[in-house]
Specification:
Blueprint (H helix, E strand, L loop, with lengths): L3 E8 L2 E8 L4 E6 L5 E8 L2 E4 L7 H6 L6 E3 L5 E2 L3 E4 L2 E4 L11 E2 L9 E8 L2 E11 L9 E10 L2 E10 L5 E2 L3 E3 L1 E2 L10 E3 L2 E5 L14 E3 L12 E2 L6 E7 L7 E7 L4 E7 L3 E5 L12 E6 L12 H4 E2 L4 E12 L1
Antiparallel strand pairs: 1-2, 2-3, 3-4, 4-5, 6-16, 7-10, 8-9, 11-12, 12-13, 13-14, 14-28, 15-27, 17-26, 18-21, 18-23, 19-20, 19-22, 22-25, 23-24, 24-28, 25-26
């Protein structure tokens, strides 16, 4: 038997993929519906610990409460009033909808059926590539994007790589985001330590849309209650905020760290570019403050409406862009 294995499986009526490390007793389960990670099991303290607070069963995969581990493409977070302008053309993602019902968030693939286009394992790791052509012209988005998501399990941990290709005949606004929830212990998040290597907070209003212009960007020196540049306990902090101007480590990765001091179990959520959104799940419909979402995003939410992000979101016809992020286990 090789160290790693990769196989198709089922969770009730839902098709899933399982990646296993037989030596270090680690396992990933990924739903084909939405390409949502369901679990990331590791051996710790003589027991199996699931670091991923994902969907628990087939019904949750279909209902997607909290968008747990959602792949967010062609945009992440919210778009203000579900409207934006691109290349001079105003777009409405919800034509005919008025008032409080107007809300567009997290892209178009949370309910997409992904195909398994590659599944392999050897002594170096296990991986699966899931693809969808679900992003096609629709109200407010007259573009076509082919999306592939590759999950890899190896000695370094979990890596996710997204590939977005513009298969239309005009430039398209497009960027990637991931919406993972992590749980380090049965206790609430209050007793866990968080470190976010950012210099700047993106300040938003009550609607979670960033303030206009430069008012959106605030030095963390001026908001100490939301400053996690040095590791500290979450305590009663309520987070639903984006952080930018991330500091890279020597290998070029930005690492947001979460640790349970009681057990010494910790993780590093890494990314190679973009912003980090932290959410303490206070408003989650399931187990409020029992997990924390640490969301690597290629661009800030509402980037379709932000001039300073215009080039970052622009994907030319025939062009392909990649985004990589992942999770490392850290023990102390």
């Amino acid at each position: 038997m090789t160290r790693y294995a990769a196989e198709n499986a089922r969770l009730g009526e839902q098709e899933i993929v399982v990646l296993t490390d037989h030596v270090d007793n680690r396992r990933l389960r990924i739903a084909r519906h939405g390409a949502a990670l369901l679990s990331y099991e590791v051996a710790f303290g003589g027991v199996t610990q699931d670091l991923a607070d994902g969907y628990r069963d087939a019904a949750e995969i279909a209902g997607r409460p909290g968008s747990r581990f959602a792949v967010m493409v062609p945009f992440a977070g919210r778009i203000a009033d579900a409207r934006y302008t691109f290349d001079g053309q105003p777009q409405d993602l919800q034509p005919g909808v008025v008032g409080a019902e107007r809300a567009s968030r997290h892209g178009f693939v949370r309910d997409a059926a992904f195909d398994v286009t590659a599944l392999s394992a050897d002594e170096n790791g296990a991986q699966v590539t899931l693809t969808t052509k679900a992003i096609r012209p629709q109200p407010g988005y007259p573009h076509s994007i082919d999306l592939s998501i590759t999950f890899m399990l190896n000695a370094g941990g979990l890596t996710l790589e997204a590939s977005m290709r513009n298969v239309g005949d005009s430039a398209a606004p497009c960027f990637f985001g991931w919406h993972p929830y992590f749980r380090l212990a049965a206790s609430s998040v209050d007793g866990w330590q968080l470190q976010i290597p950012a210099q700047t907070l993106i300040r938003s209003g009550a609607d979670l849309i960033a303030l206009p212009g430069e008012a959106a960007y605030v030095s963390l020196d001026d908001v100490p209650a939301l400053d996690f540049r040095e590791p500290r306990l979450l305590g009663d902090s309520i987070l639903d905020h984006e952080y930018t101007d991330l500091h890279a480590e020597a290998d070029g990765r930005f690492r947001t760290r979460l640790r349970d001091p009681a057990s010494g179990l910790g993780i590093a959520v890494w990314q190679e570019s973009g912003v980090m959104h932290a959410f303490t799940a206070d408003t989650a419909s399931r187990d409020a403050r029992r997990a924390i979402a640490l969301e690597p995003m290629e661009c800030m939410a509402n980037a379709f409406n932000r001039p300073e992000w215009a080039q970052a979101i622009r994907l030319l016809p025939g062009a392909e862009r990649h985004f990589r992020c992942g999770v490392e286990v850290e023990l102390s």
